[in-house]
Amino acid sequence: MAVVHLVPQASNSPLARLVADYLTHVRARGLSPSTDTAYSHALRTILLPWCAEQGIERVEQLDRRTLDRLSADLLTRISARGKPLSADSVHTYTRGVRQFLTWAQQEGEPVTAKPQLPKLGKHYRDVLSVDEVNRLEAAVPTERDKLIIRILSDCGLREGEVARLRVEDVLRPENRGQLHVRGKGRRERRVPVLPRLLRRIERHIEGRLQSESDRIFLGLRRARTGLYEPVTESGIRQLVRHAGVRAHLGRRVYPHLLRHSWITEMLRQGMDPLQLSHIAGASLKVIQDHYEHLSQDDAYESMLKALTARDSRR
Question: Are 168 and 74 within one domain?
Fold first, then answer.
């Protein structure tokens, strides 16, 4: 197997200039930094170096056969870390190339083809039980950490969304607890909060450490300024990982596992997927994909419930 060196290569070809224009367009749309980084990686680190190796300098040279060679080549290469590129990684890279070519075509460039996306297998994703979430919360020493775990597990927020929560984001419209969440792509939404958890959040805010920041969750150590700075996304990931170790769950625990467990539980409880997509800040397709992780018992119970309801109306 050949080794793909995942390092950007400088180029001033027409194709490289077109990629630069596209990435400027992406940034101008105000997409999240992580999305911008993903597009840049797929194009500058994967596509352009490969094209340089193949002597490709113009977008019209990316015909169907050439793009098939790109996908096939990536699927048979190993990364600089010595591991094969997964089908998921190649799927992500080629999807980025497709989006770039779609934009180029809309701009009037002579695009002749777009890459095929590798077929992905179905993945089983584990979930945490209610008892395991309780053990996670019990395993951390501070109320701040307990609240972070509880918001991740009871509200389905992403770690970045928890880190960005501000004092003003705790709402009580018509005495209903809600969190004003700033999600991916600067999209905002309101997420319901159970009264007990809402009261805990409000008590935490009242006793918050001294800081110039309006963020709800702060670090536990003073910065050089003598004040406490907001907790970071990496800090939340580390917190959850260590909690999983201390709770002796016997598997890797990370923030998105809590979010996935929450979405799965909401579906099992019969929540409408469209409503759930709005509250979770995820597309309906992503929500529907989570049905694949429900057990056969869940499917049986759902069908039995539907048939019983139908028979009762006869």
Answer: no
Query: Helix, strand, or coil here: 225?
Result: coil
Q: Quick one: angle between helices 87-106 and 64-75, nearest 10? A: 160
Report the distance separating Cα 36 and Cα 281, nearest Å: 19
CA distance 271 to 239: 30
The domain boundary, picked from 68, 89, 106, lies at 106
Q: Which residues contact 242 (CB under 8 A, 6 or more apart)?
A: 140
Q: Which of 1-10, 57-66, 281-290 has the lowest mean pLDDT?
A: 1-10
pLDDT in tens, 10-62: 568 999 999 999 999 988 887 767 777 888 999 999 999 999 999 999 999 99
Give the H or E element holding residue 160: helix 159-163
> Long-range contacts for 74-80 (Cβ within 8 Å, ≥24 apart)?
74/4, 74/46, 74/50, 75/118, 76/1, 76/2, 77/1, 77/2, 77/3, 77/4, 78/1, 78/2, 78/3, 78/4, 79/3, 79/4, 79/6, 80/3, 80/4, 80/5, 80/6, 80/7
pTM of the shown model: 0.67
Count CA atoms closer than 13 A to 111's CA, side-chain side.
Answer: 18
Predicted pLDDT at 313: 64
Domain range for 158 is: 131-253
Confirm whether 114 is domain-assigned.
Answer: no
Distance of CA 259 to the CA centre of its chain: 10
Distance, CA of 162 to CA of 174 (rounded, Å): 24
- Same-domain check for residues 86 and 138: no
Written as six digits, the tokens of 211 are 């800081």
82: CB partners within 8 A, 6+ apart? none
What is the C-alpha separation between 103 and 97, in angstroms, rounded?
A: 10
In a domain, 3, yes or no: no
